[in-house]
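Changelog note: in this version the structure field was regenerated for every chain. One regenerated record is shown below for reference.
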Amino acid sequence: MKVTSIKQPQSSCPFKSARQKIFGLGYSLLVFVYDKLDHHDNQTANLKILNVIYVQSEKTADFQMTRGIREILHNEGNVDDLIAFMWDRNLPVDEIEAINIAEEIMANPPELGFLTISNALQWRLQYRRVIERAGQEDGIITVYRFE
């Protein structure tokens, strides 16, 4: 479960493996998107839940990374092309892991992910695309939308 502001829809996520950026986080997400209005005069706030979105595990990979990989595969790319793409994207892996991942991709191409995952000591997950595409893509399900 992730809770995020509509003003900056992102959160931190523990870094386990660079594979998460390609094959997904390994678990589904329930994302609560809120808008908060502060009332400074009486030191209170209103919290309005705008969206609740369920993201299936296989859709939790990085959008740009998986889109690029799928395009390489569509254009008859090979292991070397995939490794070059991972290096270009600064995926935090050594050469041996890059080869292992590339071979796994060739055998089991990843689904298109819908998160933006930034490299850091912790992943920085950004949800704008999930919010925009909820209910329009398989695996990105609108549970609740404030109307």
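Spot check on this record: The chain has one domain: 2-145. The chain has a mean pLDDT of 95.
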